[in-house]
Structure formats: structure tokens, C-alpha cells
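ok trying again, last paste got cut off:
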Amino acid sequence: MLRKLMKHELRATGRVMVPMLLITLICAVGGNLSVYHLVESGSVVLNFLGIMLLTAFFAALAGTFIVSFVLMIRRFYQNLLRDEGYLMMTLPVTVNTHVLGKLLVSVFWAAVTAITALLAMFILMFELEYVDLIFYDLGEMLALLQFDDLYLMDYAGHAALFVIEVMLLLVAADACLCLQLYAAMAAGHSFTHHKGLFSVAAYFVFAAGWSILKNGAQRVFYLAAPDGIRLGLQNISAFAATHINMLAMLLLTVIPAALWYAVTIWFLKHRLNLD
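nice, full thing came through this time. structure:
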């Protein structure tokens, strides 16, 4: 059933996101034309056209991120917290499935939007003469990347692991933001009146509560951790320190995400007020 819900959600959101993403890529082509052929061409008309194309590109790029974010909130709000909620909650689907379906689709579009933004920036700055320079510089870098008895494969392994850690952290951060907003909206809609105001208040209360809890836990760990652990953390290699920091950041993102997920499920199951 989760697959069917996600398929329906992807269709509904794709009608908005796909045109936005295509417009961004098309505007990137126009921006490339502007950067290398129109701006500072000596013609007032061409200069103005180039500036307009660049403005359109950055507007489309920003608009895609904004639409992706707003659409994520709107779909959750309309489908589960408004009149459609009466129908959705009568389906033979658990609340967990509803929330997971919304969350996974939101994370998917966030990832696609980020990839499209990177591709658009590449298109904007692309020029054929740069290709040879890139490959030449890459070859020079690979030839020189050897010191302290560490060879390319040593760095490649750490680099690959770092890339994986960054990707996981970005996905977890996006999921955490989605779930915090879901939790705030679910809590706000447990009231009869001023649901939007209570949702905003719940968001800041949750954020402040987690900040206090996190800072308190970090303080307790620093005071209670054995000296051996702290000394060991201070004397590890730069590579190990980087991976440990990334894993710690990932853990500090996953924990609140799980908390917001539990809060969302509880309010939708026990306190949801659709009146």
C-alpha cells in the first residue's frame, strides 16, 4: 500500500515539480548563452537581454527550491489535516504509511531538486574549451597526490566514504526538517481554533526543546566521559576525526527526526482535529 500511496503522491507532485525542473534547465541554457555571448557584447539590447536571461535563471533556480519546500508542506496539510483527511484516514492504511509516503516523496523531490540545481550550474558555466583544462588539471593532481607514504587509493577510499557520509547527512537533514514541520502541524491541528498559529508556536517550542536537550546531553557527555575517551578523540588522525564528526552529525540529525516522527504519529492517531 505504501508503494501505491507514493505512486499517487509522485503523480500529484510531479505535475508541479517536473515543469519547474525543466524550466530551470532551460533557463540555465539561456544563462550560458548570456554569460558567454550577450553580456558585455557591446550592444545595449544584447546586454539587457543577457541580464534578463541571467535573472530568469536565478529566479527559476530559487523558485524550484521554494516550490519544492512549499509543496511538501501543502501536500501534508491538505491530505491529512484538512477535509481530505476524513477520506485519507478511512483508507485501509496505517498512519505510519501515510506519513512515510509523504516523507519519502518529499525527500525524493528535494534530492532531485538539488541534483537539478547542480546540473543547471554546470550548464550555466560550461564552455568547451574548459573540458581539456579540467582533464589536464585532474591528471596533474592525480600524478602529484602522493606524500607521507599515502597513495591515491588511500585518499580515494576516504573521499568515497566522505561523499557517502555527506549524502546520508543531507538526506537525513531534509527528512528531519520535513518531520519537524509535520510534527508542528500535527500538534497545531489538535486544537479547535487558531490551528495555524499553534502550529507555528509548536515548531519553535519543538526546536527550543531539542536544542536544550542536545546541549544538555553534550555537556553531560563531556563531563562524564572517561579521560581515555576524550584523550583518544584528541589524538586520532585527521581522516578518522572527519569521519567521527560526520557520524556524530548524522546521529544528531537522525535522533530528532525519529522524535518528530513519533510526535507526528501520536498526534495524528490521538489528537487530530479535522473540524
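cool. Residues 146-150 have pLDDT under 50 and may be disordered. The chain has two domains: 1-126, 144-275.
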